[in-house]
Amino acid sequence: MKTDSHILGNFQSAIVDLKSDLNKMTNLSVTNLKDSTKGLIERDDAACSSVIASDEEINELEKDIDQKGIRIIMLYQPVASDLRLVTSIMKVSPNLERIGDQSVGISKRARKMNKNPECDETQLIRPLRDLALSQLENAILAFNERNVELAIEVKRKDQDLNLICKELAKKLTKKMESDSSRIKDYLDLHYITRLLERIGDYSKNICEDAIFLESAVDIRHGGELPETENS
Fold first, then answer.
1. Tens digit of pLDDT at every position of the chain (231 positions)
2. Plot region of 206 (φ>0 → left; ψ -120 to 50 → alpha; else → beta)
3. Angstrom distances, CA of residue 51 to CA of 7, 9, 136, 163, 225
4. Cα–Cα 20 to 30 A to 114, which of 59, 126, 143, 229?
């Protein structure tokens, strides 16, 4: 990249702006996951409506990040770590947008369930919600702090999340077989379980971007993990 001080200053300002948009997007994604599951577990329709209303802002931020990232690459031609930063931010934002979509899906199902008498099995979602939220928050932290060890830990914990999903699916299937009167609620909970599992997958993707950002190692599709102090 050209080192003229004026150009460098403009580049740094553009990077700050890009990071600011990503920060807004991560905050909204976490808030919407919290609110959507609150709407489900606490039967809070207002929380569900808030998630659905704010989804458009997440969509717009994704488009803004794409446009700003492309502009930075065209204008300043960054290389090495600067280029990795811009492209990694552009790769993280679609995962955050998809997480937002899953939260909207949870909110819509929750509002549907809230019209019926309370379903006790809704509380089975809590452990899965807690782990999915922790995975998302740690994935974002790993990216922001370029923490490869944390990113690897989150990737490995995704197996735990998948296991909880499978066990919960089995429990809900048994309930459907034994109690047909609430079968629609059980199907909705089964669907929500799948949405939370997908959120875990998107969090894992963010961790892969965090690893690439810091180490320049692409671990997608079976690539080898970089060595760390605890390897």
1. 445 665 778 999 999 999 999 999 999 999 999 999 999 999 999 999 999 999 999 999 999 999 999 999 999 999 999 999 999 999 999 999 999 999 999 999 999 999 999 999 999 999 999 999 999 999 999 999 999 999 999 999 999 999 999 999 999 999 999 999 999 999 999 999 999 999 999 999 999 999 999 999 988 766 666 666 665
2. alpha
3. 40, 37, 17, 27, 35
4. 59
Residue 58 tokens, joined: 């997440």
Cβ atoms of 106 and 40 within 8 Å: the answer is yes
* Residue for token pair 């446009």: 67
Q: Which two tokens stand for residue 49?
A: 């409506």
**Ordered structural domains, the chain, with CATH:** 5-222 (1.20.58.220)
